[in-house]
Known about the structure:
By secondary structure, the protein is α+β, with helices and mostly antiparallel strands. The chain is built from two helices and five strands. It has helices at about 5-10, 25-35; strands spanning about 10-15, 35-50, 55-70, 75-90, 90-100. A five-stranded mixed β-sheet has the order 1-5-4-3-2, covered by helices on one side.
Amino acid sequence: RKDVDGFLSFFSSRAVQNQRDGWEGIRSIYTKFFDESRELRFQIEGMKTEIYRNRIEVKARFRIDQTLKKAKQEKVWSGNIRWILGREDGDLKILSLDYQNEKPL
């Protein structure tokens, strides 16, 4: 639905993406990404979850098929992704998100 606020509700206010972008950077990145997109399809494969005392670590492969609004061009984003989740005010939130888009061959 490209609902930035709904999407960001899964993130902690202390979240960090790719070890550099804080909350405002994350908001800016996804606002731009959603605004540029006519359509998005997201897939997760091979999800593995490890539960620790104070956090949960999730690793998987992702694929995003993006159709751009302007050029009606399609882009494919894919690679490995890792989330660290923790409790915040009783809810499970993303504390850390790391991913690397693989360049097509």
